[in-house]
Design goal:
The protein is mainly alpha-helical. It contains four helices and no strands.
Length: 76
């Protein structure tokens, strides 16, 4: 799940791929609140589970976001 999320973030937000690591935070990647809303919608579009922007902001780090997405995908 990390590589697909990394690709999504790199292409959608023009973030250099070497900056996108599991322990990177959304702030580290330069994502603002609107970007996080868009990311939540992109996650739902790409993988199916509904994840809110508040949940992404609470998770903050990419590894925690991946855990959240994977737990939701497992329920589908």
């Amino acid at each position: 799940m990390f590589e697909p999320l990394k690709s999504l973030i790199a292409s959608k937000y023009q973030v250099e791929v070497d900056r996108i690591t599991p322990d990177a935070t959304l702030d580290d990647l330069g994502l603002d609140s609107l970007d996080v809303v868009e990311l939540a919608m992109a996650v739902e579009h790409e993988w199916g589970p509904k994840v809110t922007d508040d949940e992404l902001l609470e998770a903050q780090r990419l590894d925690a976001i991946i855990d959240l997405i994977e737990s939701r995908v497992a329920r589908i």
